[in-house]
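Friendly challenge for the regulars: who can give me the structure tokens for this chain first? No prize, just bragging rights.
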Amino acid sequence: MSAVISTSKNLYKHKLTKQENVKEKKTFFCDMKFTDVRQALMKRKWILKRISKNNISFKGKNTNQKGKPIENKKNRDDEIVDFLWTNYRRVNFEKIQAYQYVNHLQGVTELSIKSNLWSNLSKNDKIRLPFTVVVKNFDAQKKDIFAALSITVIDGENNLDANNNSKNNVADNNTINNNNNNNKLSNTYIIKPVSSSRGRGIEIVSNLNDLESHLKVATEEKPMIIQKYISNPSLINKFKFDIRLWVLVSSIDPLRIYTFNEPYARLSNFEFTMSDNNKLIHLTNNSIQNKQDDMLRTAKSKEKDAKMFSYEQLMHYYGEDVWKTIIYKQMKRQTYLTINEIVPLLKTTGKGFELFGFDYMLDDDLNIYLIEVNLDPDQSHSTNVTRNIVPKCINGIIDIVTNNTNGALKKDDKNENTDVDNSSNNSLSEYWDKLESEDEEEV
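First reply, four minutes later:
Bragging rights claimed.
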């Protein structure tokens, strides 16, 4: 009799343990476009959970993919997941639980909104930025804008002249003196909406009429910024480029900042010149470059990955010593200074973290300038370069933020869906460099 009871208890205990194991399984949700996030978490035995768009972790209108309202849906606690990866604007921080991982921090728009970037960082002389003026009412601000940028009109023309109008002396000496100096247009300005992405709304101007017409649309609700254009960029084979550096803030108290050590360059498809304001020459954003007419491309730009340089290609072009001790070291320093400057404005909700896309430009004296900071940076496999590095980036982030030492994937782990380097036994988090206070020191 006792044996039967003992057996029953054991069976009951066994069933209970199985139920507990089910409860212990960690769940996650990510937007469909974040393919590498989904694959990385599933390989670590996390369970993908489908949740409705009106889940309490989300905010805003409850709509379907066609934008139509979702009716008769109630917020369900059982839809809460342990790990949420979605766009910043969708996160309802008030409803994030203490145990939840979420891929955003509160307050990060203090960097991603261009006017905030300038107002928060411009007082720190160690941070190298293009001189910027925020415009909310052009007619009321016109006098101040012209004074701040030292803008004057050349007699008989609507061309602009500017002197000493950049933070940290960006190409101040290249001023136009007569109408024949078509290749020396330091009097060129770039105008941007403060919160747009993918190059939308950006204009390159070098005459008064264009400047006024583009700035007159600025309002208190939709400000614009105007910057002195960096007219002496470093070029790769005569093409302008910027460098996308992924930056991870895994904690703000204590402050933990990482930079992905395989940044990549995005190139224009047209040879650089200051005598033409064509945006396809000056804006290296992929969204801009992909819209160009194929018939206008140079023969070199027709190559599949002509628009991107991997960090190996960058090191080869500039030399490994220059890349490591001058260029990448500057980027790490500027990144540390930038994040450190806005830490008081950030707040962690749950187990929050943030992946930024820092865009840097290099001038012909090898000085690095921070152009802008992006939230939810592009993770698509648009070229062979990104196809190779995005899985490394995401897998490393998962290991860092979950502090997953035992379950971390290794570089030699087989990964059928991603092109992960199999040459080392180190954790994939080794692709991330942790920044320390010494990275604040002058390069």
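The mean pLDDT is 78. The radius of gyration is 25 Å. Your move, everyone else.
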